[in-house]
């Protein structure tokens, strides 16, 4: 959680210094959800995120250097600088992507869960008990993909956990004003799966619920819908002046900071000392500073990378065998409409 918080605070600094471009959505305040769920996974398990995906990537094990470099648009980023803030992806860590449009990651996650079931039951890979976590926000729960995928996952008993990070706001729309029944977890039983509500500001409570849901999926008992009630401490994105939320509401949730709460728990139960926790802070600061330095010094992508990953065969259209754009060849458009 400390890594997630420090990383996002640094992202804000770098964004305002002009090191990052486009929209950048920070995760401050929601760290208990990412940590409570993802740290229970195996490397083979999959995670599908949203546009607020930096900390999900870090929790899944993607190095801070690779995430920061991606934000800087550098070739050393986890997507070689082509994904940016909203599209973190790592095949090695089975992070199947951040997704810019709400809801679009849920069908991908459902497909990943189907893959696990298919490998186990059809291809007879007995040791394939891989689980998928699908993260999304409260605003997404009014979208069609959410309902369609809950139905499919329950029908086929897929090994997936649908994790709603209900931070009470969909950009500037209050969850209470947008949803006929604001208790999202109740939608689970409607599709024949458990629906659970948990305090998303308490990492230990989140972890307890996550253990049950992930274990259930791993045993082949089907999906679970978990609603984690949490709060983002910053605006929707770094371009959001955050003037719509009541200051009293923000202060209420700031007093329930998941990191502060865990520190208090650790000290009161003699699980760690102040010195231990300060050592963690220091170590994380070094990791984040190193990530920034590495990203800043990394090279930007070459022009020849522009059309890669656009087509299934990167050399089949825009780039010739010599690595140059085919459109640089005068004969490229011969016999076609005027370009």
Q: How does the helix and strand content classify structurally?
A: alpha/beta
DSSP, total strands: 7
* Low-confidence sequence ranges: none
Overall structural domain count: 2
Q: By CATH's scheme, which homologous superfamily of the largest domain applies?
A: Thiamin diphosphate (ThDP)-binding fold, Pyr/PP domains
| Alpha-carbon Rg, integer | 21 Å
Give the second-level CATH assignment, the architecture of the largest domain. Answer: 3-Layer(aba) Sandwich
CATH topology of the largest domain: Rossmann fold
> End-to-end distance, in Å?
51 Å
Q: Mean pLDDT, nearest integer?
A: 93
EC number: 1.2.4.1
Domain Dehydrogenase E1 component: 5-302
GO biological process, one term: pyruvate decarboxylation to acetyl-CoA
InterPro entries: DH_E1 (IPR001017), PDH_E1_Alpha_Subunit (IPR050642), Pyrv_DH_E1_asu_subgrp-y (IPR017597), THDP-binding (IPR029061)
Word description of this protein:
This protein is α/β, with parallel strands linked by helices and 339 residues long. Helix 5 packs parallel to helix 6. The protein contains twelve helices and seven strands. The protein is globular and about 55 Å long. The relative contact order is 0.15. It has two domains: 1-301, Rossmann fold (3-Layer(aba) Sandwich), CATH 3.40.50; 303-338, no CATH class. Strand 4 and strand 5 (173-174) form a beta hairpin. The strands form two sheets. It has a five-stranded parallel beta sheet, sandwiched between helices. Keywords: Oxidoreductase, Pyruvate, Thiamine pyrophosphate. It comes from Gossypium raimondii.
């Amino acid at each position: 959680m400390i890594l997630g918080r420090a990383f996002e605070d640094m992202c804000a600094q770098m964004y305002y210094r002009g090191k990052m471009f486009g929209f950048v959505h920070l995760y401050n305040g929601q760290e208990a959800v990412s940590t409570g769920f993802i740290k229970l996974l195996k490397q083979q398990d999959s995670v599908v995120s949203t546009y607020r995906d930096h900390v999900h990537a870090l929790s899944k094990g993607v190095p801070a250097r690779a995430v920061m470099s991606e934000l800087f648009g550098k070739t050393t980023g986890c997507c070689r600088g082509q994904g940016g803030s909203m599209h973190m992806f790592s095949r090695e860590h089975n992070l199947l992507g951040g997704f810019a449009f709400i809801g679009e990651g849920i069908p991908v996650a459902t497909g990943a869960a189907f893959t696990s079931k298919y490998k186990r039951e059809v291809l007879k890979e007995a040791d394939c008990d891989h689980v998928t976590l699908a993260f999304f926000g409260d605003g997404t729960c009014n979208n069609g993909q959410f309902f369609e995928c809950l139905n499919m996952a329950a029908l086929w008993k897929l090994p997936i956990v649908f994790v709603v990070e209900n931070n009470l706001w969909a950009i500037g729309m209050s969850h209470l004003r947008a949803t006929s029944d604001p208790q999202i977890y109740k939608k689970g039983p409607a599709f024949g799966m458990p629906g659970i509500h948990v305090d998303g500001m308490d990492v230990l409570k989140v972890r307890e619920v996550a253990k049950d849901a992930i274990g259930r999926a791993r045993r082949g008992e089907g999906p679970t819908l978990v609603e984690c009630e949490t709060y983002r401490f910053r605006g929707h994105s770094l371009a959001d002046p955050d003037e719509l939320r009541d200051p009293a509401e923000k202060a209420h949730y700031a007093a329930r900071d998941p990191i502060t709460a865990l520190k208090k728990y650790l000290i009161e139960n003699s699980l760690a000392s102040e010195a231990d926790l300060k050592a963690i802070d220091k170590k994380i600061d070094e990791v984040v500073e190193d990530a920034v330095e590495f990203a800043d010094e990394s090279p930007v992508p070459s022009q020849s990378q522009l059309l890669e990953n656009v087509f299934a065969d990167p050399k089949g259209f825009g780039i010739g065998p010599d690595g140059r754009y085919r459109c640089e060849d005068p004969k490229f458009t011969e016999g076609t409409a005027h370009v």
